[in-house]
């Protein structure tokens, strides 16, 4: 049996089991061992001289180019992203975004960044990229004409993200990518929320699909990593830049992420189902003005999500009807089954008070038509607990919100 061969007719659930498990990497065991290595040894000088000439994936050379544990993870991620020729691994999600931007952009270039992108992506535009003479321009991804008008001769890349960070707006990714292509710019999607299981980005016209593996793929809140997958030409450029930057991930971390990957589709399904049940329950509560969950029928962006995505995850937000920031914080403090902290995509539920208006220059918060008083938000990352317990916990914390 050769489980590493993946004819396209095998379903995702089957491919995710075998992906990256080449027998020359695993030997007689199921998982590739953790290959801790800086030096790789050569048979003789002839083999040594051959190394730099080939610089191929899956060839021993030197530790900075990884060894079978990292290669297996990279190949597994490539297998799950239809249209990808390869995947570069980065030490964090932010490092993946930086690695991609430093591959595509030169001084004098313009990069368009979605106004509702993950805040460190925005900060990278205003900090690192600006310092390197690159001009970031922020756009509202729901306004395609306005976005199109921002392109100029110098626009080299576009950074997209859906749903929007914290505020969860859903944009038409294929349409935005098509405009970028027509204008000669490379489209990059931060696909951390849906993963290729919920949105096969390259197949839908995106040029580079990146993820914070720290979130769902790792899945257990114990490892940080990022990835970028692309077709042959862009993959070669990303890989070369990563080598120039000295980017490498540890084999121990790669083994953890591979372990998480094997159960990714099960966890995403369970979390999405629970998140939808909780979102539905919240939508019926008098304390709640808006539920920002694209998977919820009637919520902002639901129609786009239903049309373009085949899955979701447990991350969504909601906005209180009136109240104060203090009351909202009391609600978060009053939860007992939700941790308070950054990140998401682990097995455990988290809650975070959010104030996205501080991170926006073009988009309104909250997203829908809203009363001025309805602006205090909470982001929930739903984990693998029983959703009935989570609802009961939210219900008792709503009492704290009311100050009783
Ligand atoms: C967390 C996150 C990142 C950054 O990942 P790190 O591994 O924490 O650096 C990037 N994009 C999105 C959408 C994220 O949620």
List strands and helices in order, with pairings.
Layout: H1 12-18, H2 23-26, H3 45-54, H4 68-80, E1 86-90, H5 93-104, E2 110-114, H6 119-131, E3 135-139, H7 144-150, E4 155-161, H8 173-182, E5 186-190, H9 195-198, E6 208-212, E7 226-230, H10 232-245, H11 251-262, H12 264-283, E8 288-292, H13 302-308, E9 315-320, H14 325-334, E10 339-340, E11 350-354, E12 377-381, H15 387-401
Parallel strand pairs: 2-3, 2-4, 4-5, 5-6, 10-11
Antiparallel strand pairs: 1-7, 6-7, 8-9, 9-12, 11-12
Helix pairs in contact: 4-11, 5-6, 5-10, 12-15, 14-15
The structure holds pyridoxal-5'-phosphate.
The site of pyridoxal-5'-phosphate has 13 residues, from helix 5.
Could you explain the architecture of this structure?
By secondary structure, this protein is an alpha/beta fold. The protein folds into two domains: 3-261, Aspartate Aminotransferase, domain 2 (3-Layer(aba) Sandwich); 264-401, Aspartate Aminotransferase, domain 1 (Alpha-Beta Complex), CATH 3.90.1150.10. It has 15 helices and twelve strands. It has a seven-stranded mixed β-sheet, sandwiched between helices. Strands 8-9-12-11-10 form a five-stranded mixed β-sheet, covered by helices on one side. The model has no long low-confidence stretch (mean pLDDT 95). Pyridoxal-5'-phosphate binds at residues 92-94, 118, 165, 190, 192, 212, 214-215, 224, 226, 343.
